[in-house]
Amino acid sequence: MRIVLAGLHLVALGLGLGAVLARGAALRDELDATSLRRAFRADTMWGIAAALWISTGLWRALAETEKSLGYYLSNHVFLGKMAMLGVILLLEIWAMAALIRWRRALARGVPPAEVADPAVARRIATISHVQALVVVMMVFAAVAMARGYGAR
Ligand code: HEM
């Protein structure tokens, strides 16, 4: 189980980083049915990766498959990693709400050009690329904490 959790935690990284970059890129393109479909597909993968990250991460920490829970809770690099996850989730709230609105409007048959406001699309693209940068920073925090940095 330890190996499966560690492996899935890293698979989530490949899925998630790729997906959030693809979501941003799709929303920087001319907004039409194709680019919106690409953005929604990437958005779904980003959601799946987030669920995989958080579930395998919590399992590893709470079941102490690597180190004791106390090690992580007293490790400021791990706490920094969790704070960065908080930033990603906070940024996601607004983007997620807009994309849910767009999905519903498209499902009701509203034409893509009327659904997606280019200014909102650009803002979600910027949010996605900022989130990608924070994910990369989390990777460095994670490999440092796994090797004892930040431990008290
Ligand atoms: C609730 C969310 C999360 C929790 C509780 C969590 C917890 C953990 C734990 C317990 C480990 C094992 C560390 C060790 O070997 O001692 C780990 C490793 C790792 N985590 Fe997370 N994690 C979470 C989310 C994330 C996210 C979003 C990322 C994305 C960047 C990430 C990236 C990593 C990486 C790259 C490692 C491997 C470090 C290594 O072995 O070198 N984690 N995480």
Topology readout:
Layout: H1 2-28, H2 33-62, H3 69-73, H4 76-107, H5 112-115, H6 118-146
Helix pairs in contact: 1-2, 1-6, 4-6
Give the helix tally: 6
For the biggest sheet, the summary is: none
Uncertain parts: none
Helix fraction, binned, reads: over 70%
Number of domains: 1
End-to-end Cα distance, whole Å, is: 28 Å
- Tell me the overall shape: elongated
**Radius of gyration over C-alpha positions, nearest whole angstrom:** 17 Å
The total strand number stands at 0
Strand residue content = under 5%
Following the backbone from N to C, one meets helices and strands in this order, namely: HHHHHH
Secondary-structure class: mainly alpha
* Average predicted local confidence, pLDDT: 96
Q: Which molecules are bound in this entry?
A: protoporphyrin IX containing FE
Give an overview in words:
The chain is mainly alpha-helical and 152 residues long. The chain has one domain. Helix content is 84%, strand content 0%. The model has no long low-confidence stretch (mean pLDDT 96). The structure holds protoporphyrin IX containing FE. Protoporphyrin IX containing FE binds next to helix 1, helix 2 and helix 6.
